[in-house]
Amino acid sequence: MNDLFEKLLDETERRARRIEAVRGPAPGSEGALNDPLDAITALRGRPLFYPFIGSGAGRGALVELLDGSVKWDFITGIGTNFFGHADRQILRTCLNAALSDIPIQGHLEPNAEYAEFLSAVSRIAPGRCKLVWPSMSGTLANENALKIIRAKKRPAFRVLAFDGAFAGRSTTLSEITDSELNKQGQADLGQALRIPFHDPRDPRSAERTLEAMDRHFEKFPGEICAIHVELVQGEAGFRPAPADFFSAVFDRCRRENVAVWVDEIQTFGRTGEYFMLDRLGLAERADVVTIGKLLCGSAACFAPEFNPPAGLISGTYAGYTAGLALGCLVIRRLSEEGHLGEKGKTRALERAVTEKMETWKENGLITDYTALGAMAALTPRRSDLDSIRALVRRLFDLGLCAYYAGHGPYRLRMLLPGGCLTPSDLAAPFDILERGLAPA
Ligand SMILES: Cc1ncc(COP(=O)(O)O)c(C=O)c1O
């Protein structure tokens, strides 16, 4: 069987070899995207953001579209495909999983991959959060996190949430999420209590946040069960904050018996450590941590005292057999291939991106940037929503897939394929970025 798999993987590699650099549509295939794009628009009620339909071939950070054109993929399915396209180990794991008797595993009759996933995640999980409950999306991991916290802290049910927060799009999580677009037409049931996130320009930032927390504690005594925290805010445009800011906030939570729920769904594996909590030296401070995206699966990890009563959380699906196996592979490779730590590959990528963005800032091409591990965002001179969307589309036409985030200023956002992208690969895609950013 191994020989057969290797032959199949050779074929994927043969297809990948035709992908060497950014290019336009293959002659004769210029219209190949039109029909499937029209079908998507008609069937789901609105078009894709940009005309991307992959051909199923790719090579590292480069991806081929159905019309034969090739682009840099600097958004990786919004953070899923960290090891890039056509990675042999990833695909071999999928082939092995395909031999399993079942494609999807649940919490009642799992196969061995389920147990291996739990143990791989638990081994690296931060601090006391060694119990693990897998799920099929970040949103469900967060829903499980909230449920187990509420069960432990009942009858408290309200959640402190930062401005700019993103927790998911379920009816409850879209209340915690601070985006009007994500909650259009939804009732506000008062479950989320807003507090200001760290503001690097304000020396009193932490004090202001603590004051806002205190006002909520005073107004809702005994009703606040948790704080939801992204240590680097994702959808808000990659906003980080220093460890002492979070430390002060967590101290106040402890005093008020409020659980610390750290949402690492976007940051997991991406910041140069498994967890941003590790990078900030705060691993011991979390009660519940959620992960997803890059892991190819999702999970809530929690301290033993939060272990929920049977029946509170479950669901039909725990993960695809391939997804559970990929989660274990991703965890192993991040460490074995040297992506983690101060001297690791992710920090080297961060330094290379920082160097380039610093030049752009000095030249006035951008006004601001964040480069943190394989997360990179920049604020162009025109940072209203229409301009930023136009920039994303211009970059797409030039051969680079990125996306946007933030809420004014809006920012260009990239979730880099740090598992395969090295600093020496950056010249060509950064040239595209520079051309896209240049004033017309
Ligand atoms: C911080 C954070 N939490 C939760 C989610 C929701 O995850 P999912 O889209 O897998 O449901 C996301 C997704 O972008 C996220 O960035």
Structure, described:
The chain has helices spanning 2-17, 34-44, 76-79, 88-98, 112-124, 138-153, 173-176, 205-219, 243-255, 276-279, 321-336, 345-363, 385-398, 427-437, and strands spanning 54-59, 62-65, 70-73, 104-105, 131-135, 158-162, 192-195, 224-229, 232-233, 239-240, 259-263, 288-291, 298-302, 319-320, 366-372, 375-380, 400-401, 403-406, 410-415. The chain has 440 residues and is of the alpha/beta class. The model has no long low-confidence stretch (mean pLDDT 97). It has a domain at 118-320: Type I PLP-dependent aspartate aminotransferase-like (Major domain) (Aspartate Aminotransferase, domain 2). It is built from 14 helices and 19 strands. Bound molecules: pyridoxal-5'-phosphate. Residues 137-139, 142, 166-168, 230, 234-235, 263, 265-266, 292 line the site of pyridoxal-5'-phosphate.
Kindly summarize this structure in a few lines.
By secondary structure, the protein is an alpha/beta fold.
Highlighted features:
440 residues, alpha/beta, Aspartate Aminotransferase, domain 2, four-stranded mixed beta sheet
